[in-house]
Amino acid sequence: MKPLTFIFRGNLAQFRERADTATAWDDKWSRVDITKQLHLAERGDLGVYRRGFRDFLPQNGLILDAGCGIGRYVMALRKKEYNVLGLDWAQQTLFNAKKSWSCAPFIIGEMNHLPLPTASLAAVISLGVIEHFVQPWILLKDFIRVLKPGGILYLAVPYENRLRKYGRNKGKYPHRDSPSDFYQYLFDRNEIEAQLTRLDFSVINRFSTSGYAGLVDEWKNLDRLVQLFPFSHHLINYLNRSRVLGSISGHIIHVICRKLTLD
Fold it and tell me: Residue 229: inside a domain, yes or no?
């Protein structure tokens, strides 16, 4: 079922089902083909994050994937010799992940109360997590504590691309006040950067990917049409991984920032 998009609390937001509990995530991950994810991780396949991780994650020092789910990116990064730890609050999901990756460094915990020492991390990754919470930015407050001075935060969230912004200006999306069935925000880029600045981060780069996903989100029948073409999956993979359509129809914005070093 495709989510429905509204204007909610000043942002674009999609409504489908709640995704702000550990139980909801256990249910979500139980429907994912873990065998396929294992295969991708064993290959070191980082999908749309490949270039961003290569360019911005430190090779030395401990990295936390906060909200790691079944741990695909934890294990893929470890294949590339990064020192990565995975954290999630969905206990059954982590239990299932450990059955596939018995040596995986997974810990159970919540993003806003990280069970880690102060100034112990070189980088934190947060991929598609905070947008599912009605009050998203409080989840990032503890990142400042656990990051070393100059440490990297790699944040990836859905955002209001140009196509969505055009639709909003044309009155395409109705307003909504009730948070029932809230699924996720589609953040405004300026708000993302303003919130990160308030949290004592300095944005050093940003770019958008998943252009095909953003197109399908706006034009529901496009996916059915494209699937009729031979080798359509190659085109889809290219558009989702490349930055060609990012600012126009990209579903995901990657924001890389640095913890400010205090004198």
Answer: no
* 137 falls within a domain: yes
- 86 in Cβ contact with 62 (< 8 Å): no
Q: What is the CATH number of the domain that holds 39?
A: 3.40.50.150
Are the C-beta atoms of residues 100 and 130 closer than 8 Å to each other? Answer: no
Q: Please state, as a whole number, how many other Cβ atoms lie within 10 Å of the Cβ of residue 171.
A: 8
C-alpha separations of 179 from 37, 134, 135 in Å: 32, 8, 11
The two tokens of residue 119 are: 């100034």
Say whether pLDDT at 50 is over 90: yes
Q: What are the distances in angstroms from CA 83 to CA 28, 54, 62, 74, 104?
A: 27, 14, 5, 9, 11
State how many domains the chain has: 1
Phi, psi of 201 (to 5 degrees): -110, 150
Calculate the alpha carbon distances from 120 to 13, 70, 149, 234 in Å.
34, 23, 10, 40
Q: Are 79 and 109 in contact (CB under 8 A)?
A: no
> What number is the average pLDDT over the span 35-40?
87
Residue 217 lies in a domain: no
Q: Which domain holds residue 130?
A: 9-161+170-210+252-259
Question: How many residues can be counted in the chain?
Answer: 263
Q: What angle do CA 125, 128, 132 make, to 5 degrees?
A: 125
Task: Give the distance, in angstroms, between the CA of residue 105 and the centroid of all CA atoms in the same chain.
Answer: 20
pTM: 0.92
- The token pair at 57 is 């994650």
Res. 1: pLDDT tops 60? no
On whether residue 143 sits in a domain, the answer given is yes
